[in-house]
Design goal:
The chain is α/β, with parallel strands linked by helices. Helix content is 29%, strand content 19%. The strands form 6 sheets. A 7-stranded mixed barrel has the order 21-22-23-24-27-26-25, surrounded by 4 helices. Strands 7-6-3-4-5-20 form a 6-stranded mixed sheet, covered by helices on one side. The chain has a 5-stranded parallel sheet with strand order 17-16-15-18-19, covered by helices on one side.
């Protein structure tokens, strides 16, 4: 029996555990990336581990999230990250060089390698044939120190692509179709592997769009084969020596197969407020719009931008619409400037933003009250745009640009035949905004620069056998990390300061949660299904940790957030009987007993609800390694013990 591409790469990198379905395996990590919203904490954690230089083949620190400098905090964080990177062997991509996933695809991604990043959209690297996984900052810190990254051997889904996309239908429409079929929780515990003849018709940037939004499925990662298309992309980036052919065996066996005929894909949109709320444009109709934002790590490649420029050429943005465009990297922006496409965009009335995440994370360009905004981004969670009642639709660049001209949601197929947009034979290569680290012999000469906003990792303690708590919060299904730890221009600058940022924890759900949890001293959060979907931000675990949360009890978890809770030493509990969700209310007194033996033996954990005089059976499924982490009080304590 042959192997899937996923299995080939995972098997060649497995350094711990049993390579069997459903078992936990530790994999060697070749590359890591961080961005500035999660990077400061990751590097504080790396420093706390105490290893002087990174042990990966390549680690890169990107500045792309907190580029709006309205105070000293973001600038201080950038300076801190730059100095840590120089000292400890990490490449540093300066502000303005571009979005981490776009730049990493261009300059560092290598087929067949493993990559983890402290950003949930790290699976973008799957477009070039990598096993690229989003993770918490502490997992990245451990990997930089040479430690393995642990996942459950996943189920592997084959998405069999046939045919070819028709004019003005896009890779964004392909992943929206997958989301429509699988839902935002349909990929949990799975890797999505794209195969079939249709793969050959998709460029590397198009593949990367699809793997990028695989994060919205809840999938561990997504991956395309490395073929002649991949080779040509790397050759154009002057990195042909990084190419190697990779594909699944012909007789590979998959756990699930989804067939998609690309020729039947039509333009679609994810409607408010969830990426899987997908409808065709014809189902939505000619809806009046207020704003269009083009960019993000999903759709900011040169190919995307050239299509946008073609649509805008000789036109003017509708007077009722604000159009902003953010090219994904300095390379893309530079090439647009040199080939005249940037002038076309400016001439049409577009607002050109810097090469950064920007509006995608609520960092500027919030729509007007109840405004309808078309965005080429990957998430449309309620309030994420910075406008609580903003109506956010996720679309392709083709739909976005044609709608910006018309003033209403517009099917780009009305534009007629689409010209062929070929990838360039050569990209402009200028890495002068990527700073290499110092030589190891000079590292002691480098001073790490810390501003007053940078606070240490929160203190943890070993697990207690008995824990008396109260329910500090009860929430519904599909709680996202944006609910738990909001982003945006006001809050993101506090990412280096857990005491300060914790004051915003869950405030979009209950503005009194931070003060209530702190007053309780020790508490439990109760939630529904798919709790913690969305970003990899470990702050969604660290802020509750700081506020005294000892356990989170839900119907089911999203993968990355569950791992982050374990890393923080917070118990990730699920109801044995989901009906017991109704047996706990805000403020109830709860007792968890016999915790140490229950964790060690894998027995159910019984929570006694003193207020309701009821016992609730909970499950805490942990690998042997995860048990040790929880017992130690978190991954940082466990790692120090191991050292």
């Amino acid at each position: 029996m042959g192997l899937t591409l996923t299995e080939k790469i995972l098997k060649s990198h497995t350094v711990d555990g049993v390579f069997e379905k459903g078992k936990e395996i530790g994999i060697k990590i070749d590359q890591t990336l961080t961005q500035d919203a999660t990077g400061t904490m990751a590097y504080l954690e790396f420093e706390a581990i105490g290893i002087p230089r990174v042990k990966t083949e390549r680690s890169v620190a990107y500045i792309d999230h907190n580029t709006l400098q309205s105070g000293f905090e973001n600038a201080d964080d950038h300076r801190f990250i730059g100095s840590v990177a120089k000292k400890h062997g990490i490449y540093f991509s300066r502000p303005g060089n571009g979005i981490c996933h776009q730049v990493h695809l261009e300059r560092f991604g290598i087929p067949g390698k493993t990559l983890i990043g402290s950003d949930s959209h790290t699976p973008t690297g799957g477009g070039i044939g990598m096993i690229a996984i989003g993770a918490g900052g502490l997992d990245v810190a451990v990997a930089m120190g040479g430690g393995a990254y642990y996942i459950t051997y996943p189920n592997i889904v084959k998405v069999n692509l046939t045919g070819k996309l028709n004019s003005w239908c896009a890779a964004k429409d392909v992943i929206l179709e997958v989301l429509r079929r699988m839902s935002v929780k349909g990929g949990v515990g799975k890797v999505i592997e794209y195969c079939g003849e249709g793969v050959k018709s998709l460029s590397v940037p198009e593949r990367a769009t699809i793997t990028n939004m695989g994060a919205e499925l809840g999938a561990t990662t997504s991956i395309f084969p490395s073929d002649e298309v991949t080779k040509q992309f790397l050759k154009a980036q002057k990195r042909e020596d990084a190419w190697t052919p990779l594909s699944a065996d012909d007789d590979a066996v998959y756990d699930e197969v989804i067939d998609i005929d690309l020729s039947k894909i039509e333009p679609m949109a994810a409607c408010p407020h969830m990426p899987d709320n997908v409808k065709t444009l014809s189902e939505i109709g000619n809806m009046k719009i207020d704003q269009v934002c083009i960019g993000s790590c999903t759709n900011s490649s040169l190919q995307d931008m050239m299509k946008v420029a073609h649509i805008l050429k000789g036109k003017t943005v509708h007077p009722d619409v604000s159009l902003s465009i953010a090219p994904g990297s300095k390379q893309v922006l530079n090439m647009l400037a040199q080939n005249g496409a940037l002038a076309i965009m400016i001439d049409a009335g577009a607002r050109i933003l810097e090469s950064a995440c920007g509006p995608c994370i609520g960092m500027g360009q919030s729509p007007n009250s109840k405004g309808i905004s078309l965005r080429t981004f990957n998430r449309n969670f309620e309030g994420r745009s910075g406008t609580k009642d903003g109506q956010i639709y996720l679309v392709s660049p083709e739909v976005a640009a044609s709608s910006a001209i018309a003033g209403v949601l517009t099917d780009p197929r009305t534009l007629g035949d689409m010209p062929e947009f070929k990838m360039p034979d050569e990209f402009i290569i200028n890495d002068n905004m990527i700073e290499p680290p110092c030589d190891e012999k000079d590292m002691d000469k480098v001073e790490v620069l810390r501003g007053p906003n940078i606070k240490p990792f929160p203190k943890t303690e070993p697990l207690r056998d008995v824990q008396e708590c109260r329910c500090s919060l009860k929430v519904e299904d599909n709680i996202t990390t944006d609910h738990i730890m909001p982003a945006g221009a006001k809050i993101l600058p506090l990412r280096s300061n857990i005491p300060a940022i914790s004051q915003h924890c869950f405030t979009v759900c209950d503005e009194n949660f931070p003060s209530r949890a702190k007053e309780m001293g020790a508490s439990i959060i109760v939630g529904g299904a798919n709790y913690g979907q969305g970003s990899s931000r470990e702050h969604a675990a660290l802020a509750p940790l700081y506020l005294g949360v000892k356990a989170v009890l839900v119907k089911s978890f999203a993968r990355i957030h569950r791992a982050n809770l374990i890393n923080a030493g917070i118990l990730p509990l699920t109801f044995k009987n989901e009906a017991d969700y109704d047996s706990i209310d805000l403020g109830d007194e709860l007792i968890m007993s016999n915790l140490i033996d229950s964790i060690k033996s894998g027995k159910s954990i019984i929570i006694t609800n003193k207020t309701k005089n009821k016992e609730i059976e909970c499950v805490c499924e942990l690998s042997d390694r995860a048990k040790k982490i929880v017992l130690a009080g978190g991954l940082l304590s466990y790692t120090k013990e191991q050292m």
